[in-house]
Every structure is written in C-alpha cells, then in structure tokens.
Amino acid sequence: MIKMTPSLFWSVLRQMVAMVSVFLCFSLPQLPVHAAELPPIRIAAAANLNGVLIELTNLFSEQAKQSVDIVYGSSGNFYQQIVQGAQFDVFLSANEEFADRLVKQGLTQGQGVVYARGRLVLWVSPKSKVTLDQDVLDVRRAFQDGRIDKFAIANPALAPYGLAASESLKRYGLMDLVQSHLVMGSDVGQTILFLKTQSAQAGMLPLSMVLPPHQLVSGPYILIPENFHTPIFQKMVLMKNAAQSAQNFYRFLQTNEARKIWRKYGYE
Predict the structure, then answer these.
(1) How far is Cα 75 from Cα 152, in angstroms, rounded to an integer?
(2) 8 Å CB contact between 111 and 194
(3) 107 and 45 fall within a common domain
(4) pLDDT (tens digit, 9 = 90+) per residue, 147-203?
(5) Domain co-membership, 133 together with 199
(6) Residue 247 to residue 263: CA distance in whole angstroms
(7) Domain-embedded: residue 207
C-alpha cells in the first residue's frame, strides 16, 4: 500500500487539475467574441442625417450585434478632415461632390453609391405670422415690416443644403432682400439651432428636419421646387481601410429594409 504523503497528495492533485483543464479546453464549445469587444464602426455623417441614422444604426446593431459611432457635421468639413488623415470607415455626404473627390484621391473602396435624394423646405416661425405660398409674397413683405429680422441657412461653401438654399433664394428673387438678414450655420444642425431659439424667424432646411418622427422644429413650411436648385443627391463611400463590419453596414444601408426607413424620413 502506497503511503499518501503531503508532497505526493499535492503532486496527484496538480495532475488531476491539469487533466480536467485539458478536457474542458477540448470538450466545451468555443464561444464567439462578444459584440462589445469588437471596435465600433466609425461613421462621418452629414448633419441632416441626425434622426434617420439613429433608427438605422439601432436596427443594424440589433441584427449584427455591432456598435456604431456616428459624428455629425458639414460634408465639406468632413472631406477636409478625411484628406488630412481623420479615421472613418464610412462617409455619408449630403451631396455627390465631396464623396467623388475622395474617390478621385484614391481614399475609398470603389466609387461609392447614392443612398438618398434630399429635399429642401422654406420654414417660418409660427410667431412671425407669415403666410406661405409658392410666390413667397408675404415673405417679401415680412422682411420689410419687421416680422422677419433674421433668415437662417447653412454655409453654402461647406453644406450642400446651404448651397441649395442660396440657389433657391436667387431663383425666388429674394437674395438681394435677404442678404443683410442672413445668418449662416456651419451645418444644418447649427441652422436648426438658430430657428429653435428664435435667433432667426425663417430659414431653409432639409425636409427631414420638419417631418415626424424626428421633427426638430414645428411651424409652417413649403417644399421648394427641385428645379430651383441643384438636385441634392446624397452619396456615401466606404473608406480604404474599412473593416468587414463597416462593409456590412455599408451594404445594409442599401437594403430594402433600410430604404423603407429612408423614405419615412422624407428621403427619396
């Protein structure tokens, strides 16, 4: 009979623990890496997409178990940041031009795709008591009698919706009248702040920002005819070093399921 000394006991115990560890390693199923451990997809998005992208990314994250980080701003500023080395996986521009420039500079995977067509509206504060019609006759009178003191648009040099607003003011024959009353936001998000705080009593902004379910300002508005400005075709590009998860998100935004959500927010 073998005498169980303390040293022998601990030696046998260590061997048993090692055998159990090997058994567990090979017999238990290997669990996938949890989504929280994956790096988030980094998105640079035009400010007018705040709202629709929240719903889209929530749906994608629920399905793919993948987190998405979104930064909103003007398309022109994002273009400059990306050229200077800012790291994003997907860039959703409010026009085609800034996305196409990145394609030409070899910073993207492929040519990109138009994901939406935006529309522009002329909005007035309910407190201004301005009556809106397609001839904007009362808008003209409102500048003269003081009901409208400030008119807000996004910066045309940086924001495609600002450029469309500038073109539309000229087409309406309002630019000379409005010029001294203009306040410009760096993007449509800042333009909305001017209107929400009554710093401006009227302005031009994306249709998506006056429609439920992401209505940012309430009040009367009219849809500006598309032939009053350059059509707002919004294009997205997948950046050169984007990971597979970002490619999945890029494709998801083009699915029929996503298209229903785009339309709900006023995009065509």
Answers:
(1) 18
(2) no
(3) yes
(4) 999 999 999 999 999 999 999 999 999 999 999 999 999 999 999 999 999 999 999
(5) yes
(6) 22
(7) yes
